[in-house]
Amino acid sequence: MLDLTVASMLTGLVSVGVGAPVDLVKIRLQLQTQPVLAENFNLAGNGSVPLRSMGIQSQSMYRGPLHCISTVLQNEGIQGLYRGAGAMILRDIPGYTLYFIPYTLFCNWLNPDGNGTPHPCCIWLAGGLAGSISWVTATPTDVVKSRLQADAMQQRKYKGIVHCIMQSYKTEGIHVFFRGATVNAIRGFPMSATMFLGYELSLQFFRSF
């Protein structure tokens, strides 16, 4: 269990190196049609006034992923691609730990005899439950990460992770950090169940040679 915990934490740390720039580009492209003048792009989804009625028009900043990357590098440097990486580390290290450990525990519980690889149905269920647990627990830091990544598209609103947390809590309350948790749980189940099942079945296939 100690080996599994350390391996999971290191996996989460390493994943940030590749995942942070990709995630930033995804966030920027998803939010680029929102007006630059909107407060933090209404990441919490609580805007109630129609933007057109305010005289604000949508504006596309990027033509695609490559253009987004080049623009960020030109305007913000290499550190711009890793904006929000600190929050991503806080999300992924415990997130991966609470991904692989529950999966292993659930597989052991569903296959108490420990005879060979668990049944595919057990793998599917264990993977889905592990995914839901991981994504729900990662929701608060995911909110902070997304706000920091989107914040750089306009005039800076947050100075860092702690400032983002304090400002978000001050203006929207504690519940802001759990918005989308239900969606994450629902999304995490089939996605993780399919991933773990594909992983285990692939191992079985290649080991059969």
UniProtKB/TrEMBL annotation:
<feature type="signal peptide">
    <location>
        <begin position="1"/>
        <end position="19"/>
    </location>
</feature>
<dbReference type="InterPro" id="IPR050567">
    <property type="entry name" value="Mitochondrial_Carrier"/>
</dbReference>
<dbReference type="InterPro" id="IPR023395">
    <property type="entry name" value="MCP_dom_sf"/>
</dbReference>
<keyword id="KW-1133">Transmembrane helix</keyword>
<keyword id="KW-0812">Transmembrane</keyword>
<feature type="repeat" description="Solcar">
    <location>
        <begin position="118"/>
        <end position="205"/>
    </location>
</feature>
<dbReference type="GO" id="GO:0031966">
    <property type="term" value="C:mitochondrial membrane"/>
</dbReference>
<dbReference type="GO" id="GO:0022857">
    <property type="term" value="F:transmembrane transporter activity"/>
</dbReference>
<keyword id="KW-0496">Mitochondrion</keyword>
<protein>
    <submittedName>
        <fullName>Solute carrier family 25 member 48</fullName>
    </submittedName>
</protein>
<keyword id="KW-0472">Membrane</keyword>
<feature type="repeat" description="Solcar">
    <location>
        <begin position="1"/>
        <end position="109"/>
    </location>
</feature>
<dbReference type="Pfam" id="PF00153">
    <property type="entry name" value="Mito_carr"/>
</dbReference>
<dbReference type="InterPro" id="IPR018108">
    <property type="entry name" value="MCP_transmembrane"/>
</dbReference>
<keyword id="KW-0677">Repeat</keyword>
<keyword id="KW-0813">Transport</keyword>
<comment type="similarity">
    <text>Belongs to the mitochondrial carrier (TC 2.A.29) family.</text>
</comment>
<keyword id="KW-0732">Signal</keyword>
